Structures are given as structure tokens and as C-alpha cells.
Amino acid sequence: MPRKAAVSSDWVMRAAPSEGVERIEAWFRDKAYAMHRHDTYAIGRTLAGVQRFNYRRSQRDSLPGNTMVLHPDELHDGQAGTSEGFRYRMIYVEPAHFQDVLGGRALPFIEGGVTTDPRLAAATESLLQHVGYTFEPLEQSDALAELAHALADVAGISRLPEKGDYLAARRARDYLHANCTRVVTLDEVEAETGRDRWSLSNDFRTFYGTSPYRYLTMRRLDIVRRMLLTGASLATAATDAGFADQSHMTRHFLKTFGLTPGRWLRIARGMNAP
């Protein structure tokens, strides 16, 4: 469970660290942090207010919806840009995670520390969920791989030629298909395929056009739709298909089909009516 630490009217909520990734959500009325530096990437999104910080000898303002990317070992501070205060979410990612994905290429550097690039907005969406959300192992691994590639693309770092292992990707696909209604660990998939998680993620995208976790989620949604058409409740369909709960399922359903499960079911039944 996230911990909420109050400092007068300011607060910070922290999720339990997971696989070298830390996540926080915070609100500050005025001064937040003095000049400091991390040995990780600090990547976040401003949710409300003006988030002001000094970075690489210049003052930066991040507005709601902006993505912040602070490079490891770069000095920065933090404070509100207006009297209303500011709210934000941030993840701290060890550079080794990105390096495992990028395979020896230079670490991406995003000039200015604040960006409106839609590629980074999309790539950070999953990782910057509320700190109370618990990631499945495959889900976090896929999200980190997507973020690493997006950072490299925005920074102008060329991609290496794709060299995939088709047999490993096929074994992973078969394994995920057979086990889609439960949490699948990274160790399981690595043992099943003989490939490390980052190489396998690239294999899967090369040969199946999507990530392992996305494939797993789609198979769960297939089950949900079948169950709904046979009269199962939303809650039962969600848990039987392997989702954490109904809201977890609904979020993925809406993102995938553009409809809530209830509306989809009404339309599907209407189409099937005589």
C-alpha cells in the first residue's frame, strides 16, 4: 500500500519499490526540494498547477499534461510556479533498465527536461498511474521497454537492426495463451523461452507486432467478451479472466475497444437480436 507522509499542507505518497523502479505522487504549496541529484532517471507528469524547477542552469516550468525527463546525475530543485501549488507523479528508473533495452547505445537525453512530445506522453501513461496501482511483472517490464524506445526515438538515437528469435517468441506466445488467466512472472517466461526479458520483448514485437503483456491482456479481454455474452456479471468476468478487479478490466476494455464493457454488451446484443 502507498504511504502518505504529510508535511504541513504538503504531502507525498510512495508506492513500494519494484524491480528498480520507484513511484511517487505529491502535492506542494510552495518550496518542495532544494538542489539535489539522483543516479536514476526522474520521469514524471504535472497533474495540476505550475511545477517550476532549475535544471541545467535554466528555470523550467512544467504545466498540467507536460512530461518531465530529468537525466541521471543532473542537479535540479522543485517549487510551485504560482500560489496555487502543484501536483505531480514521478517514477525513478535505474539507467541499467534502459540500457538493457537499448543494448549499449547512449542513454537518451531529452533537452530542457520538459516535453510535450506525444510519443513520451503515450509511453509514460502506464507507468504514471496512481501509486496505489500494482503492476503485474510483465506489465511493468513491457512499459519500461516501450519507454526506453520512446526516449531513444525522441532523443534521436538510431535503432539497431532487429534480430529476433522466432522460436522463442512463439514459445512465449503459446505459454501466455495457455496461462492468460493468472499472473505470469518474468522468470517463468524466461525459463520457458531461454531468452532474457528484454530480448524476448523485442522478439515478440518483431514477430507478433505487440508486447507480451499486451498480448496477454487481449486474450483476457477475449474471455471477458465471451463471458459477458453468456450472461456473466462484469465482476465475475473480470476476475475469471485474470484481471485484478472490475475497474482494472474496464480500463483495459475501454482503451482497447473505445467502449465500456456495459455499452459494448448492449450493442453486441442488439446486433445479435433477430
TrEMBL record:
PROSITE patterns from the UniProt entry: HTH_ARAC_FAMILY_2
Pfam families per record: AraC_binding, HTH_18
Swiss-Prot/TrEMBL keywords: DNA-binding, Transcription, Transcription regulation
Domain HTH araC/xylS-type: 170-267
GO molecular function, one term: sequence-specific DNA binding
Oxidoreductase recorded as keyword: no
UniProt cross-references to PANTHER family, sorted A to Z: HTH-TYPE TRANSCRIPTIONAL ACTIVATOR RHAS-RELATED, TRANSCRIPTIONAL REGULATORY PROTEIN
The name this protein goes by in its record: AraC family transcriptional regulator
Species this protein is from: Pandoraea faecigallinarum
